[in-house]
Amino acid sequence: MDFDKVLREKTKAVEAVIRAYAPEEIGLYKTVCQAMNYSLLAGGKRLRPMLMEETWRLFGGEDAALIRPFMAAIEMIHTYSLIHDDLPALDNDDYRRGKKTSHKVFGEAMAILAGDGLQGYAYETACKAMDAAKDEGQLGRVARALRVLAVKPGLTGMLGGQVVDVEMEGKPISKEVLDFIHERKTSALIECAMMIGAILAGANAAETAVIEEAARKVGLAFQIQDDILDVTSSLEVLGKPVHSDEKNEKTTYVSIMGIEKASGQVEKLSGEALSLIDGLRETGGYENPFLGELLKALIHRKK
Ligand code: FPP
Ligand code: MG
């Protein structure tokens, strides 16, 4: 498999799905739609919708009409979190995805509203899967997927992690608290993506739980790599400022354990995640070689 070529093609296909569900820029509230689309359509790795789709493939997913609205929805939620995370009251960053941040272009008020707008529109979009459901069974899967989409980005998930992150700024924190933050701030949305892919393809509760655990590990490994890149990369490569953690006096995996040990953790967690997914081949015959390659590439990514 020419992984890079396949990845480029799949990223393009995900882009098309996101574009198809992006809000129309019309009406008296047009400005907020423009701000929503400015960030939503600004590129990015499209990791979450791609992981959702590839997990769906892993479990032999057949009806793309069910999953497409959810793919767009999770990228909307992710984009809302990035817009708000970059605001002056939070990380106060000027660049994201290689472009000026929302508040730099549209002003702070409109950036707040664009984030709110994307969050709400995500659920409006995901609900479109209800119209695509062909029978009660499919409708049940959509309902269970909606529940995951409601829970994982919320209080006990991404938002909760962000709250602890904000409150701990400038304070020394233990590895346990750092894990708590990142299992929510970063892993929760990756769990959300992969669990929804599994549920919509018809995975049972035990299989979905394996995916949740693998995704938690992927998310942590991804975040540790993020911390490493914040020290070792550049604005040009990353598309966002480096040394942002130091500027914000953030405790990171690198500040706690150094680059070498942090890289070791990335290896360990990603190996564990891959074995969990590999185990599904043995127990249920589920296989998706691209998913394995994708997880490896993300964890060892340079941007
Ligand atoms: C980069 O994703 C983002 C993360 C690693 C997650 C950070 C978590 C937050 C910003 C949560 C903020 C929450 C609130 C409620 C404000 P990526 O590297 O996939 O980015 P890309 O999509 O641009 O490629
Ligand atoms: Mg932040």
What does this structure look like?
The protein is mostly helical. It has one domain (3-299): Farnesyl Diphosphate Synthase, CATH 1.10.600.10. Helix content is 74%, strand content 1%. Strands 1-2 form a two-stranded antiparallel ribbon. α3 runs antiparallel to α16, α4 (64-85) runs antiparallel to α11 and α8 packs antiparallel against α11. The model has no long low-confidence stretch (mean pLDDT 95). The structure holds farnesyl diphosphate and magnesium ion. Farnesyl diphosphate is lined by residues 44-45, 47, 81-82, 84-85, 97, 158-159, 162, 185-186, 223, 226.
Identify the notable features of this structure and list them briefly.
16 helices, binds farnesyl diphosphate, binds magnesium ion, 303 residues, mainly alpha, Farnesyl Diphosphate Synthase, 1% strand
Q: Nutshell version of this structure?
A:
The protein is mostly helical and 303 residues long.
Bound small-molecule species? farnesyl diphosphate, magnesium ion
The structural class is mainly alpha
Largest sheet, order of strands side by side? 1-2
The CATH architecture category equals Orthogonal Bundle
- The H-level CATH homologous superfamily, spelled out, is Farnesyl Diphosphate Synthase
Strand count: 2
Distance between the termini: 22 Å
Low-confidence stretches: none
Range of strand content: under 5%
Computed over alpha carbons, the radius of gyration is: 19 Å
Q: What is the fold named in CATH at topology level?
A: Farnesyl Diphosphate Synthase
Largest sheet: 2 strands, antiparallel
Overall pLDDT metric: 95
Number of helices: 16
SSE pattern: HHHHEEHHHHHHHHHHHH
Quickly count the domains.
1
Assign an overall shape: globular
What share of the residues lie within helices?
A: over 70%
CATH class: Mainly Alpha
